[in-house]
Every structure is written in structure tokens, then in C-alpha cells.
Amino acid sequence: MSDKVRVHVWVRGRVQGVGFRAYTEAMARKVGVQGWVRNLRDGRVEAVFEGSPSAVEAMVAWCEQGSPGSKVESLERRSEAPEDLEGFQIRPTPQEQEGS
N vs C: which end of the chain shows fewer Cβ within 10 Å? Predict the structure, then answer.
């Protein structure tokens, strides 16, 4: 699909232990984007959204506000080439990928 876009985001703030990933998954399914979300060991949440430009932008805007109980301090975003992901999932926290 030529009209599909992909945005990779990293959300900093009080975003772990407040249902952020579950709310993100529910919202992604509601607006019809594909991708994934996971906690990072440094306290951030990382997510990838693929879909129509308007749906992806809706997800980025949602992440800037966050779930009830969260407090988003900042959001970093990067546009990437779509990979034709299917569905939306909560992924496990990376254990080995973030070494120093």
C-alpha cells in the first residue's frame, strides 16, 4: 500500500505501571493501525504504528497525552519505511538488545 506510513515513537515520563501499553493496544485496534508497543528497561515506552497517515497521527497524538494515570514528559518520533505489519501486539521488554 503506497498510502501506508510508519512512525516509531519513544515516550518518556510516568508511562510504566499505569496501563500505558494496554491502552495503547486498545486505541491502536480502535483506529485500525498495526504495530507493537513495549516497555524499555530505562523507563520509557517504545511503539511502532503503521497505517493510514491520519490513523498513525491519531496514535502519536494519543501517546503525547497518554493513558489515565500516566504523565508523558516527552515523545521522540522517527518516520520509517512501512514493513506491512499485521495486527497490534504488546511485546516483552528487551533484555539483551539494550546493553551498553
Answer: C
Residues catalogued as catalytic: 21, 39
Contacts 24+ apart (CB under 8 A), 51-58: 51/4, 51/5, 52/3, 52/4, 52/5, 53/3, 53/5, 55/31, 56/5, 56/6, 56/7, 58/31
Tell me how far apart the alpha carbons of residues 44 and 6 are, in angstroms, rounded to a whole number: 19
* Residue 68 contacts residue 19 (beta carbons within 8 Å): yes
DSSP state of 53: H
Residue 51 grid cell: 497505517
Splitting the chain (100 residues) into consecutive groups of 10 residues, what average pLDDT does each group show? 87 97 98 98 98 98 96 98 96 68
Q: Give this prediction's pTM.
A: 0.92
